[in-house]
Design brief:
Blueprint (H helix, E strand, L loop, with lengths): L1 E11 L2 E7 L5 E4 L6 H9 L23 E10 L2 E10 L5 E4 L2 E2 L5 H4 L2 E4 L11 H15 L3 H20 L5 H35 L7 E6 L10 H10 L1 H7 L10 E6 L4 E2 L5 H22 L5 E4 L8 H14 L3 E5 L13 E8 L2 E7 L2
Parallel strand pairs: 3-13, 3-14, 8-12, 12-13
Antiparallel strand pairs: 1-2, 1-4, 4-5, 5-6, 6-7, 9-10, 10-11, 14-15
Length: 368
């Protein structure tokens, strides 16, 4: 099992001090808009590598007006072990992580826990630009392979340097050769990790009987250009693209231009052309597939963060989602404006109400 047993927030967003004692069941959180529900989910997301579900800077998470920094502390049950996890930021500092009393890199969080989320901004995933879909896929990929984050960071850092040379009109091949070698090495891992993640998602969808539609998934490149998958061929592709890239002032070939394509399988309709409700259902389907695949590969389903999950889901699909979450045995943190949105969960979940009093968020457990 993978679940939080204790969660403490200190000066995090609207929460001056908050503590939850949990038993592994799903967690239903309701309250008015602006009360601080999503802030709880964001705090949990900081128990994984990266910038969290809002992609906010660490300073943006500091409670005002105090501005003293923030801290999230958790007792995490991960498979057959229990870990004490802390992550914090002091004012003006960088994010720190401590696991079982020892300072650790962020990527170490991904080795003991898997956290997957679905937030309202993702509702536009299928109609926005490719960057959002790459980020969505990379989060899923990182849930399978935590080291994927390092490959992406290495690639992006080298590409930024290459783009700077391109904008400056630099033509010295030696500068480009060194950066392109770094990019090619990281790109091989990025491509392999993404392909493996898509394959696992496809397999997980195929194994399940679910109320949510199956999406036919594929990775595509602009204009259907073939992207090499070996280090040598990738380095050659970067080199051959230099004249075109110099004219554009940026790198035009590579995994940073890949896109995740999805088709509503039963209808043969591209996700971008589906209705709003169908697009949300396809998103939920992928989150559930990710959870099933992780339950098999990691040994337990991930911690799920489902913000305003009931939006665009009718009552039937909402109940089906809760049934599937419970069947998976996943600890899902779900938010909504009213308790009626979680009525179908009953005592299968713990229920909390978040309210605002004198500028601070208050969390109270309630009986449904």
């Amino acid at each position: 099992m993978l679940a939080l047993r204790e969660l403490t927030l200190s000066h995090f967003r609207s929460h001056k001090v908050a503590q939850l004692s949990l038993d592994g069941r799903p967690v239903a959180i309701h309250g008015r808009n602006g009360a601080g529900k999503t802030n709880i989910l964001e705090a949990v997301s900081m128990l994984s590598p990266g910038r969290g579900l809002r992609r906010a800077t660490v300073d943006e998470m500091i409670r005002r007006p105090e501005g003293v920094g923030w801290k999230v502390t958790a007792t995490l049950q991960s498979l057959h072990q229990t870990h004490e996890v802390e992550t914090w930021v002091e004012a003006g500092g960088t994010r720190q992580v401590r696991i079982d009393g020892k300072i650790a890199p962020q990527v170490a969080l991904g080795r003991i826990a898997r956290v997957v989320w679905l937030v309202p901004v993702m509702d536009r995933l299928w109609v926005e630009g490719a960057e959002g879909r790459r980020r969505f896929l990379d989060r899923m990929t990182m849930s399978f392979e935590p080291n994927h984050a390092d490959a992406v960071l290495t690639y992006e850092k080298a590409m930024r340097e290459r783009n700077r040379l391109l904008k400056d009109g630099q033509r010295d091949a030696h500068w480009f050769d060194a950066l392109e070698a770094q990019m090619a090495c990281a790109a091989v891992d990025i491509i392999a990790n993404r392909n493996a993640a898509v394959a696992q998602l496809i397999a997980a969808q195929a194994r399940a009987e679910t109320a949510f539609p199956i999406a036919d998934l594929s990775l595509v490149q602009p204009d259907d250009v073939h992207l090499p998958e070996t280090e040598t061929n990738l380095a050659q592709a970067f080199a051959e693209s230099r004249p075109r890239d110099l004219m554009a002032g940026r790198t035009l070939v590579g995994p940073h231009r890949s896109d995740l394509a999805a088709v509503y399988a039963a209808k043969g309709v591209a996700a971008r052309d589906c209705s709003t409700g169908e697009q949300k259902a396809l998103l939920v389907s992928l989150i559930l597939a990710n959870s099933r695949a992780l339950a098999q590969s990691f040994g337990a389903p991930p911690i799920l963060l489902l913000d305003e999950v009931a939006a665009h889901l009718d009552a039937g699909r909402r109940a089906a989602l809760y049934d599937e979450v419970c069947a998976l045995g996943a600890q899902a943190f779900m938010t909504g404006t009213g308790p009626e949105l979680f009525a179908e969960l009953g005592d299968r979940a713990s229920h909390y109400e978040v309210s605002e009093i004198d500028g601070s968020s208050l969390i109270e457990e309630v009986t449904i």
